[in-house]
Each structure stands twice: as C-alpha cells, then as structure tokens.
Design a protein that fits this description.
Number of strands: 13
Order of helices and strands: EHEHHHEEHHEEEEEEHHEEHE
Structural class: alpha+beta
Distance between the termini: 28 Å
Radius of gyration: 18 Å
Shape: globular
Largest sheet: 8 strands, mixed
CATH class: Alpha Beta
Helix content: 25-40%
Number of helices: 9
Strand order of the largest sheet: 2-1-3-10-5-11-8-7
Strand content: 15-25%
C-alpha cells in the first residue's frame, strides 16, 4: 500500500466537479475512493425520518436543513465503511478543494510526513487539514515541513481532514441517526468522541466551487446558548492570558 485511503465525497449528478477533482488528484498521483454523496434535498419523508432525529436536533442543536442532513449522512456513511472494513485511518475530502504540492506525502503509510505514522487506529483523532486560525505553541508534532498542533478556538468544515478508525467508530455510534452537523468538531471533542488537531500550514483549501455547494446550498442558523458568568470569565481569561502567552496564529496557505 503506497497511500492510505482517500475518500472523496461527490454528488452523483455533479459530473463537472468530479471531472475537475479527478484531474487534480491525478496530478498529485492520488488514487481516490469515490463516495456518492447523500442528497438530503431529494430524500422521501420516510427515508429522512429513519436517519434523522429531528426532535433531538431541535433540542440540542437547532433546525437542520435537508442539505445539512445529507452532508452529515455522507460523512457518517464513510465512517460506517471504515468501521465495517476496519480501515485504520483515512483522509476525507469534499469535491471542491485544492491541494498543496506535497499532499500525497501526507497520505503515505509511513515516513516523516505521514499522518498515519503519527497516530494509531485505536487513537480517536481528527486532524483538520484546512486552515485553523490559531493553535497552541506547546506540544506540536513535527511532520516534515509541517506541524500538527492542538487548535485553539473554533474548528469547522469537512472539506479535508484525517480520521482514525477509533474516531470513526465513536462518531458513528454517537451521531447516527443524524442530529447535528458533521463539522461541529469542538462538540465532538467535548463529548469525548475524539481529540482535535490541526495541520499547519494547511494542506487543503476550498476552491471557487465551494462558493456554490451542490450538496448544502443553505445552512440553518445555529442555536446560541445564553452566556453564563462562568462563560464570561473563561472568555476574559482566554483573551488576557491564554491567547497572548500560549497561542500563536497559524499560517493560512492558499497555494
């Protein structure tokens, strides 16, 4: 095996996107595993009810659009495949991204730049490969010319990320039927489903195609919990001590 699995989420009808992504991956020498995205917009009411817990979503997260449900199901079904086939780890991409020149080295099963060599299959880990604004200075893991760091602040997007088997198993068990969007990574970490890391400089970034999504053109507003005194004190501590002393800005690489 000269590379770990690289799943690419693509809507079956999005032929132009697939063609562009095939050309991109070919230039990088990457053999993808294509995954037909779930289009929540065209699912029947009965099918939607079987795989979406609307009541739980409304209480814990807020309303979810059909596009968001389909996107979340797509990623969960990849996790299901990883679990059923005992895939130790994988990189998951959406079909509207661009890749750094050394992207293929990150997919190597071993070596100085190998993500797979940094984490074992029993270690529940997600490494965000798109840009994260800030990361902690201490505890960085060298990965060739890049580093893996613990992110600080929000971590969103499912455009490109590395996932271990243990994390896939935990997410599948906890998040199906769907009741939250697939990229609420901080929530998943708080629930003990995985540990978050970020790759810096980022090796994946969204292309112009991402401005018009084929899968989730609309996104519902997230529910915002009322801030408590503890929340406000935590924010003050973060802005006055944590960020200035323990955190650094991460480079935003766009090719």
């Amino acid at each position: 095996m000269d590379q770990i699995p690289c799943f690419v989420v693509n809507l079956a009808t999005a032929l132009e996107r697939r063609s562009a992504m095939e050309a991109l991956l070919s230039r990088h020498g990457i053999r993808p595993t294509w995954f037909d995205a779930v289009d929540g917009r065209v699912m029947s009411g009965d099918a939607l009810a079987r795989c979406f817990d609307a009541r739980r979503a409304d209480i814990a997260y807020g309303p979810m659009s059909r596009g968001e449900i389909g996107t979340s199901l797509s990623h969960l079904e990849i996790y299901r495949r990883m679990v059923e086939q005992e895939v130790p780890c994988a990189v998951i991409l959406e079909d509207d991204v661009l890749l750094a020149d050394d992207f293929r080295d990150l997919l190597a099963p071993e070596g100085a730049q190998s993500l797979a060599a940094a984490f074992g299959p029993d270690d529940p880990v997600m490494v965000q490969m798109t840009h994260v604004a800030r990361g902690y200075r201490q505890g960085a893991i060298a990965l060739g010319s890049r580093q893996i760091v613990r992110p600080h602040g929000g971590v969103w997007l499912t455009s490109g990320y590395f996932l271990t088997l243990a994390a896939a198993r935990n997410l599948l068990r906890a998040m199906y039927p769907v009741w939250m969007v697939a990229d609420h990574w901080r929530y998943f970490e708080r629930e003990g489903l995985l540990r978050l890391y970020a790759l810096t400089p980022n090796a994946v970034w969204e292309s112009q195609l991402s401005q018009v999504s084929d899968i989730a053109p609309e996104r519902s507003a997230r529910r915002k919990d009322k801030k408590t005194i503890v929340d406000r004190l935590g924010r003050l501590l973060d802005t006055t001590i944590v960020r200035p002393l323990l955190v650094r800005e991460l480079r935003h690489f766009r090719g």
